[in-house]
């Protein structure tokens, strides 16, 4: 009986080590590639991720904005003003679909809001989705990234939530992005990727009360999805 129990425990806790990846590794600009300069993160901030939380920057993205400048600026601001040793998020997604690595997922993220952040993987999309609409490249990259994270960390898609779902006093990640969470689209697309199927990612119509402006991609504002 003891031997059987040990075998079952090994199968449950070690199942990930024995299975082949379901989701291909997305293209990610690593922290060293964009020039990250973190301070050491204390050992008591270590975590085992078990959920994924979606954020937006809360600042409108403008044509010509440079994600690397924004990364370095956010990191330095956090160290100076909040005493955060590194970026508050684990991954950040630009409007053109580029994914950037932030702090290691093995450490707890940071937040200006009051909620228990331990266990969360923080994924931020640049833009303000109270004022702008998320575009195809950014949404597709987010689905791929989140599916890969679920696969890597054995996290069920049911745990994917918006920042406003876990913290009071915030509209993050903005109405235009939050509806892909509220209506279940993001979880369905991630689950399809985990089942080795290619999801049909469809952009929604503009909300009746806005926003209507697409987030700019590359050097010009997006006119159509």
Description:
The N and C termini lie far apart (59 Å). The chain has one domain (26-194): 3-Layer(aba) Sandwich (Lysozyme-like). It contains 8 helices and 6 strands, in the order ααβαβαβββαβααα. The chain has helices spanning 2-13, 15-18, 31-34, 67-82, 136-153, 163-166, 175-182, 185-194; strands at residues 28-29, 51-56, 91-93, 99-101, 120-125, 161-162. Helices cover 34% and strands 10% of the residues. The chain is α/β, with parallel strands linked by helices and 225 residues long. Strand 3 (91-93) and strand 4 (99-101) form a beta hairpin. It has a 6-stranded mixed beta sheet with strand order 1-4-3-5-2-6. The chain is globular, with a radius of gyration of 18 Å. Helix 5 crosses helix 8.
Please give a handful of descriptors for the protein shown:
6 strands, globular, Lysozyme-like, 225 residues, disordered N terminus, disordered C terminus
> What is the share of helical residues?
25-40%
Strand content: 5-15%
Average pLDDT for all residues: 90
Q: Characterize the biggest β-sheet.
A: 6 strands, mixed
Overall shape: globular
Strand order of the largest sheet: 1-4-3-5-2-6
Total number of helices? 8
Helix/strand-derived class?
A: alpha/beta
CATH topology call? Lysozyme-like
CATH top level assignment: Alpha Beta
Kindly report the name of the CATH homologous superfamily. Peptidoglycan recognition protein-like
